[in-house]
Amino acid sequence: MFTHAITRLPGENFASGLTTAQLGSPSYPLILAQHAAYVDVLRGLGLEVTVLPALPEHPDAYFVEDPAIVTSKVAVINRPGAPARQGEETSLAAVLAQYRPLERIYHPGTVDGGDVLMVNEHFFIGLSERTNPEGAGQLGSILRRYGHTCETVPVGQGLHLKSSVNWLGDERLIVTRALADYPGFERFEKLLVEEAEAYVANTLWVNGSLLHPTGFPLTRQKLEKLGLPLIELEVSEVRKMDGGLTCMSLRF
Ligand code: GLY
């Protein structure tokens, strides 16, 4: 169960962040409203939520999950894979030092937290354009030193590993067809997401509830069968910036 979350407000210049989505210009008032609704949901699920101020020099910094990883035992300060995002991690270190011992990923390693899927004490580390083998190796050594287990997964398509696969509690994953046959996922019951609804693979488990983006009726029907509380959130503006529900918080 999570007791804390760290989030960061999107800044006025958030639309100059990195994106490959061609979904139109995002609106600042709308993203603020969507972010506020997300924070409210986390609070409603019992988490104490820290909302950090925007970082004007880093328009993607509200995707606070990427520059750090927090486990039950340690916080890892990442070296983000996109040069424009390097530096976002600096102010997080002081915040996370209040909760966990700190470790770091060093040059030439790069890791984005969006590539790191936690399933209890086991970690799947996606190898992507953002997380390189050196970074994954450093992270794996840190995690094992703190008693965790881990393995790497080739991400293939999509920005991050968690663009395509997420944990749904117990021994269940939500996963796109592209990653469904990865041998490391064999032991899981899989909720398959069809290509047309791929974005909803970014569904987030928080304390037994599932937060998912609005607008994916086929997958919603499958999620309903799990019998867990479902919370639909509008994240249209976040999506325009290649982000989603998992990227907007660090939960621990
Ligand atoms: N805009 C999120 C990212 O590209 O890292």
Task: Describe what this molecule looks like in 3D.
This protein is an alpha/beta fold and 252 residues long. It contains six helices and 15 strands. It is 21% helix and 25% strand. A three-stranded mixed sheet has the order 2-1-15, covered by helices on one side. Helix 1 links the parallel strand 1 and strand 2. It is globular. The site of glycine (GLY) has 10 residues, from loops.
Quickly list its features.
three-stranded mixed β-sheet; binds glycine; 25% strand; alpha/beta; globular; 252 residues; 6 helices
Q: How many helical stretches?
A: 6
Largest sheet, strands/sense/barrel: 3 strands, mixed
Uncertain regions spanning at least 5 consecutive residues: none
Strand content of the residues, in percent?
15-25%
Instruction: Give the strand tally.
Output: 15
Summary, kept brief:
This protein has 252 residues and is an alpha/beta fold. It has six helices and 15 strands.
